[in-house]
């Protein structure tokens, strides 16, 4: 795969993980454009997601230790749908990550989600068990490449009347158990003999962490300033281009 490709993909992952434009869709598209790109399943994708997990933990390191048991319970409830879907349909999901066939249509769906978020009137509700579970269902649907995880979960939150800032924070924190679980599953599946070059994966990890940490603060500001329509236009344009490739 090489250092250049690893760094390039790491930067894409770090920047797009927190934008409602689908990091997984960008990774699948970028990998399909890199000549001779090969990897053992989706292990490289998961490692890059692991890097952004650390970026989230480091960015919110002060607030995380202040979370109450109730909030942690909501995160657990919101994680259940993705765990069930990921366990039952692991092979089918992995196949989706190895094909760019339907990416164009899926980017279009992400565009519609962002447009809907832009048009929803902000609410003032807090996170609770019911809306966290429904947000978890949105996260499970977003396992499909090019369906934005952050866009889907933020949409679910604001559509249920959760205050936008709280919806964004819950979306980012909800990614932690989901990404951690995916890493454990993939590492257990491939093991140390997975046939990958450690150095390539390491530089990809560092690139994703650095760019992800940089992006979190910027993205929080953009999301709270109701800039979703620009993300919608971006997804529409990228979807159209992908369909023409």
UniProtKB/TrEMBL annotation:
Location within or outside the cell: Cell membrane
State which Enzyme Commission number(s) the record gives: 3.6.1.27
**Protein name (record):** Undecaprenyl-diphosphatase
Major location category of this protein: membrane
What highest taxon heads this organism's lineage? Answer: Bacteria
Q: What is the stated purpose of this protein?
A: Catalyzes the dephosphorylation of undecaprenyl diphosphate (UPP). Confers resistance to bacitracin.
Give the record's keywords alphabetically: Antibiotic resistance, Cell membrane, Cell shape, Cell wall biogenesis/degradation, Hydrolase, Membrane, Peptidoglycan synthesis, Transmembrane, Transmembrane helix
What gene, per UniProt, encodes this protein?
A: uppP
Gene Ontology MF terms: undecaprenyl-diphosphatase activity
Q: Which GO terms describe its biological process?
A: cell wall organization; peptidoglycan biosynthetic process; regulation of cell shape; response to antibiotic
Membrane association type: Multi-pass membrane protein
Q: State the reactions this protein catalyses.
A: di-trans,octa-cis-undecaprenyl diphosphate + H2O = di-trans,octa-cis-undecaprenyl phosphate + phosphate + H(+)
Transmembrane regions listed in the UniProt entry? 40-60, 72-90, 102-120, 201-224
More details: Bacitracin is thought to be involved in the inhibition of peptidoglycan synthesis by sequestering undecaprenyl diphosphate, thereby reducing the pool of lipid carrier available.
> What is the native source organism of this protein?
Candidatus Woesebacteria bacterium RBG_13_46_13
Q: Report the Pfam families cross-referenced here.
A: BacA (PF02673)
Question: Which GO cellular component terms, listed alphabetically, does the Swiss-Prot or TrEMBL entry include?
Answer: plasma membrane
Task: Name the protein family.
Answer: Belongs to the UppP family.
